Amino acid sequence: MAERVEVLIPEEEVNRRIHEIGEQISRDYEGKELHLICTLKGGVFFMCELAKHITVPVTMDFMCVSSYGDTTKSSGVVKITKDLDEPIMSRDVLVVEDIIDSGNTLSYMIEMLEERKPASLKLCTLLDKPERRRKQVHVDYTGFEIPDEFVVGYGLDYAQRYRNLPYVGVVKFE
Ligand code: IMP
Ligand code: MG
């Protein structure tokens, strides 16, 4: 099936909003050090751009989690395919996500990270599709709330493609 991508959030708008969130985070964490945890692969573009606008000292780590499969997705069972390199105990941690959809992945991740006893744990997402939520997750920083459409770009993929688009687009099948 042929598909095309329509721009939903233009590049300038995405960058402007990320800049704003970076400034807000810098204010909220003033006097502290911030440990960013990026969820691979989708969160990478967002985290890199965000980190450039944070003025407090920043360290970074990466984690990869994936759902076991469609049948178990609603149970929120996810597996860690790449764990963090460093402990997070007593650190101020900010999880940086590309998108929150059902909330299953994140609610599992947050629970697991809480067990490692960080000093604080907050969540930042570029995109949020609130209509699709199945598990309640508290989000501290949101870039954009979007309608229930399949989006790509700025790290998000469709069959591993389109991650490199500098804007957020909607995939249209024709
Ligand atoms: P959740 O567990 O349902 O919240 O799923 C979140 C994950 O599903 C995200 O981290 C993405 O990898 C993927 N995802 C959800 N919606 C989209 C979308 O519109 N485009 C691309 N990936 C998506
Ligand atoms: Mg993701």
Put simply, the count of helices is 4
Tell me the overall shape. globular
Bound molecules: inosinic acid, magnesium ion
Tell me the structural class. Answer: alpha/beta
Cα gyration radius (Å): 16 Å
Could you report the average pLDDT, rounded to the nearest whole number?
Answer: 93
Q: Write out the strand line-up for the largest beta sheet, numbering strands in chain order.
A: 4-3-2-5-6-7
Q: What is the distance, rounded to the nearest whole angstrom, between the alpha carbons of the first and last residues?
A: 7 Å
- Proportion in helices: 10-25%
Order of helices and strands: EHEHEHEEHEEEE
- β-strand amount: 25-35%
Which parts are unreliable, with pLDDT below 50 for 5 consecutive residues or more?
Answer: none
User: What is the number of beta strands?
Assistant: 9
Let me know the largest β-sheet. Answer: 6 strands, mixed
Oligomer: single chain
What does this structure look like?
The chain is α/β, with parallel strands linked by helices. Helix content is 24%, strand content 34%. The protein is built from 4 helices and 9 strands. The protein has helices spanning 11-28, 44-51, 70-73, 104-114, and strands spanning 3-9, 34-39, 58-67, 78-82, 92-100, 120-128, 141-145, 151-152, 168-173. It has a 6-stranded mixed sheet with strand order 4-3-2-5-6-7. A 3-stranded antiparallel sheet has the order 1-9-8. Helix 4 (104-114) links the parallel strand 5 and strand 6 (120-128). Helix 1 (11-28) packs across helix 2 (44-51). The longest helix is centred in the N-terminal third of the chain and has 18 residues, at 11-28. The radius of gyration is 16 Å and the shape is globular. The N and C termini lie close together (7 Å). The relative contact order is 0.21. The model has no long low-confidence stretch (mean pLDDT 93). The structure holds inosinic acid (IMP) and magnesium ion (MG). Inosinic acid binds at residues 42, 98-106, 150-152, 156.
